[in-house]
Design a protein that fits this description.
This protein is an alpha+beta fold. The chain has two domains: about 260 residues, Aminopeptidase (3-Layer(aba) Sandwich); about 120 residues, Alpha-Beta Plaits (2-Layer Sandwich). It contains nine helices and 18 strands. The strands form five sheets. Strands 1-2-6-3-7-17 form a six-stranded mixed β-sheet, sandwiched between helices. The longest helix is centred in the last third of the chain and has 19 residues. The two termini are about 10 Å apart. It binds zinc ion (ZN).
Length: about 375
C-alpha cells in the first residue's frame, strides 16, 4: 500500500495555497477564507468539519481515534503595508528572495497559508486507511496575528482535544521547540504643566523620560538561552499629554517597552529590573518618578527536546527529508504555548522562513510546502496506523 506521504496530490496543495492567498483575511475578517478551508476539507472527505463563531475551522479525520494528532495553523495574516500585489499568489522564481526553486508569493504565503494547505491535505490522506487507530484534527484558526492566541484558545475551550500537536508556523523545515514570550510594559513619567511659552515654570515629563530611555538602551543586561536565544528589549511607542495642540508643557509621558522573555521569567522580576533602572535615574534626579505596569502578555513556548513527541516529529522529518538538523526556535511568537497550557505537548514544524513573515517579500518555496505536507503525513502514518 502506498504511504500516506506518497498519496498527496501536489498540484492540489499548491492550488489550494494560492486560493487562500487570493482571499484577504486580516484578523477578524477570516469568514471567506474559513469557508474555503471548510470546503476543501469537505471535498477531501473529512469526517467532521465545523466553523465556529470566531471563524475557526475544525476538521476531523476519525474523530474518535487515539492518538488524536492536532495540526494547528492560522488563517489570518498581517497587514499588507506597501507590499506589491499582496493577493496575487503568483508563482515566482524564489531566487529573487534568496530561496531556491519556485515559490508562491503573497501576503500570508509563509505566515502561514502554505502550512495550512499542507496540513489540510496531509490529514486527508488518513481517510479510509485500513487499520486506522488514530485520528487527526486540523485546527485552522482565526485571530492569531493579534498575538494573544484568541482563536486557538477558543477552539481548545470548546472541547477540541488531542494527544499531541504540531504548530505549522514557518520553521525553515527544522523542528522548533520554543520561542520567547513578551511583556509590553507601560512606563510613565510625571511632570508639571505650564504654558509652553515659559517652560521653566513647568516640569517636562518628556525630558524626564529621556535619561530613563538612555539607561534602558545601554545598561539593561538581558538573559539568554542556548536554544531560545537572547532576550531583547526595545521601546515601541511614546505618548505625552495633555498634547501639543494647546501649547502646554506635558505633565505625563508614557512609553511602551517590548521586553522578550524566557520561560520562567515573571512579571514581578521584569518590573523589578525596570524599576532598578528607574532608581538609578532617580539617584541623579530626585524629582524623577516613574510608574510601571504590564499592559499585554504573550506566553513563551518551550518543550524539552528530549520529549518523545519532539523525537517522533524529528524522526518523521528526517525520514522524509533525509537529513538531521538540530532543533531550533522561533524569533516570533505563536499559538503553541496556548496549546501546551492545555496539557497538549506541541512541537513546531512548518514550511518557509520566518524572516519573510509580515515582510514585503512574503513567499513560501513550493518544495517546502510539499515537503511539509509529506512530513505531516509521515507523522500521521507513524502515529495513527
Ligand atoms: Zn503566523
Amino acid at each position: 500500500m502506498r504511504t500516506l506521504a506518497s498519496s498527496l496530490d501536489e498540484r492540489e496543495i499548491i492550488e489550494f495555497t494560492q486560493q487562500m492567498i487570493r482571499t484577504p483575511s486580516l484578523s477578524g475578517e477570516e469568514a471567506n477564507v474559513a469557508e474555503q478551508v471548510a470546503a476543501e476539507m469537505n471535498r477531501l472527505g473529512y469526517d467532521r468539519v465545523e466553523i465556529d463563531d470566531r471563524h475557526n475551522v475544525i476538521g476531523y479525520i476519525n474523530p474518535g481515534g487515539r492518538p488524536m494528532v492536532m495540526l494547528n495553523g492560522h488563517i489570518d495574516h498581517a497587514g499588507v503595508g506597501q507590499m506589491k500585489d499582496p493577493f496575487s499568489a503568483l508563482i515566482v522564481d524564489g531566487s529573487r528572495f534568496g530561496s531556491s526553486g519556485d515559490a508562491i508569493y503573497g501576503r500570508g504565503a509563509c505566515d502561514m497559508k502554505g502550512a495550512v494547505a499542507a496540513m489540510v491535505h496531509a490529514a486527508a490522506t488518513l481517510k479510509g486507511r485500513p487499520g486506522l487507530k488514530g485520528g487527526a484534527v486540523v485546527t485552522a484558526v482565526a485571530l492569531e496575528e493579534k498575538g494573544e492566541g484568541e482563536g486557538t484558545k477558543h477552539v481548545l475551550s470548546h472541547g477540541v482535544r488531542a494527544d499531541f500537536a504540531v504548530c505549522g508556523e514557518a520553521t525553515g523545515m527544522r523542528v522548533n521547540v520554543g520561542h520567547r514570550g513578551k511583556f509590553n510594559v507601560r512606563v510613565t513619567t510625571r511632570g508639571r504643566t505650564s504654558h509652553a511659552c515659559s517652560p521653566d515654570r513647568g516640569i517636562n515629563a518628556i525630558y524626564k523620560m529621556g535619561p530613563f530611555l538612555g539607561r534602558l538602551q545601554t545598561e539593561y543586561t538581558l538573559p539568554s538561552h542556548a536554544i531560545l536565544g537572547q532576550c531583547t528589549c526595545t521601546v515601541v511607542d511614546i505618548m505625552a499629554s495633555p498634547g501639543w495642540t494647546s501649547p502646554t508643557v506635558p505633565d505625563s509621558c508614557s512609553v511602551i517597552v517590548d521586553r522578550r522573555t524566557l520561560p520562567g521569567e515573571t512579571e514581578e522580576q521584569v518590573l523589578a529590573e525596570l524599576k532598578q533602572i528607574a532608581a538609578r535615574v532617580a539617584e541623579k534626579d530626585p524629582q524623577f518618578r516613574a510608574h510601571m505596569d504590564i499592559v499585554t502578555r504573550t506566553s513563551p513556548m518551550w518543550i524539552d527536546p528530549s520529549n518523545p513527541i519532539v523525537q517522533r516529529v524529528e524522526q518523521a522529518r528526517s525520514r522524509i527529508l533525509g537529513d538531521q538538523q538540530p532543533v531550533g526556535a522561533w524569533l516570533f511568537g505563536t499559538d503553541a504555548p496556548y496549546i501546551i497550557e492545555q496539557g497538549i505537548p506541541c512541537v513546531g514544524f512548518g514550511p518557509g522562513n520566518e524572516t519573510f513573515a509580515h515582510s514585503e517579500q512574503d513567499h513560501v518555496p513550493i518544495k517546502d510546502v510539499i515537503d511539509a505536507a509529506r512530513v505531516y503525513a509521515q507523522i500521521l502514518e507513524d502515529q495513527c496506523l
